[in-house]
Design brief:
mainly alpha, 2 domains, about 280 residues, rod-shaped, about 85% helix
Length: about 280
């Protein structure tokens, strides 16, 4: 090969070397570009979890909208379930009515006891003291019965009993009448407190029976088919306890207040008896 040929061949060799270097650089840069694209892909897809948030909201909404509540129990229940719920409702209303009326009555009697201590015993005579008491109150009734027995101790059969015993009997009967009036409604509270849990339990047993019958007919025993009806049936027991607990607590509370009222009443009747026996009627 001559010198001129070697000089002409060098540019072609240079071009080939440059092309090879360019290809090598591109081969090295391709993995780097692929990694950059892979790293940028999650960043671009970051807003994607929005559907997951929507699903979470739906689940929460479904959890809040419980299809196995009291409303479903009433709609899906039969005549026995409806009757049981109505009986529990009547028992609850009756017990609360008794509690409120007895509290009002006891408060009136305690107030009357304070009035009698302030005005009745400061009067000059029993008849004057009777005029200071509120007509229709328990203390007015006891004082009137005692005065009537003291003024009308006459008759063949009555005269056999001495006047002191006759007055004592009349005052004691009046106190017994007041005590009987205080006991009105207490039997209802005791009955509701003792029977309401069993009424609720009856509703639960009946509801579980119907739920098992429906599950057996459908042939599906999955948790969603069992938990719903059984949970609805257990609501009956909860309602029965909710009715019984206030009735029992109200009964014990009113019974204690009745004792305090009757202590005041017996003290008044004993003092009245002594005054009437002493003969200071006026």
């Amino acid at each position: 090969m001559s010198l001129n040929q070697s000089i002409q061949a060098r540019p072609w060799a240079t071009k080939m070397l440059a092309g090879a270097l360019a290809a090598f650089v591109m081969a090295l840069s391709l993995p780097t570009l692929a990694l950059a694209q892979a790293a940028s892909a999650p960043a671009a897809a970051a807003p994607a979890p929005a559907p997951a948030a929507v699903m979470t909201n739906k689940v929460v909404q479904e959890a809040l909208d419980n299809p196995y509540g009291l409303e479903a129990l009433w709609k899906q229940g039969d005549m026995v379930a409806h009757s049981t719920l109505l009986v529990l409702l009547i028992m609850s209303m009756g017990s609360w009515y008794v509690i409120f009326t007895k509290v009002f009555e006891q408060r009136q009697m305690l107030k009357s006891a304070e009035t009698s201590a302030a005005t009745f015993w400061k009067a000059g005579t029993v008849n004057a003291g009777l005029a200071t008491l509120k007509e229709g109150s328990a203390f007015h009734y006891i004082a009137k019965q005692g005065i009537t027995a003291s003024d009308h101790h006459e008759g063949t059969m009555v005269e056999v009993i001495d006047k002191q015993t006759w007055i004592s009997m009349s005052v004691d009967r009046a106190v017994g009448t007041v005590q009987g009036r205080l006991q009105d409604g207490m039997a209802l509270l005791a009955t509701v407190g003792s029977t309401a849990p069993f009424v609720g339990l009856f509703g639960t047993v009946w509801g579980i029976y119907n739920a098992l019958v429906k599950i057996g007919i459908s042939g599906q025993a999955s948790i969603d088919k069992v938990a719903g009806p059984v949970g609805e049936a257990l609501i009956m027991t909860a309602i029965g306890l909710a009715v019984a607990v206030p009735a029992v607590m109200g009964y014990n509370w009113l019974l204690r207040r009745n004792k305090a009222v009757m202590d005041r009443t017996r003290a008044f009747s004993a003092d009245l008896h002594n005054v009437l026996v002493a003969g200071k009627r006026g």
